[in-house]
Write a structure and sequence with these properties.
Elements lengths: L12 H8 L5 H5 L2 E4 L10 E5 L14 E5 L2
Antiparallel strand pairs: 1-2, 2-3
């Protein structure tokens, strides 16, 4: 699955990254949900499982019900 979204955010990159990579805030960025698969703190090597949003733009034949990501 491939996504491309571009948005100008008037904030420090570190502040944006702190919010963007927080699995508890996944729904704010993608409309989906994230489940933590490794204990906190989230960092290099942390794993989360994300569930795709139901309103994503990809045709239904290309949608995936979930995927796994690794931080780092």
């Amino acid at each position: 699955m491939e996504f491309h979204v571009e948005q100008t955010i008037h904030a420090a990159p570190a502040d944006v990254a702190q919010s963007m990579f927080d699995p508890d805030l996944e729904d704010r960025w993608t409309g989906g949900k994230a489940e933590k698969l490794t204990p906190e703190p989230i960092g290099v090597g942390a794993r989360v499982r994300t569930a795709a949003c139901s309103d994503c733009a990809a045709p239904s034949s290309q949608k995936s019900p979930s995927s796994s990501q690794s931080a780092g």
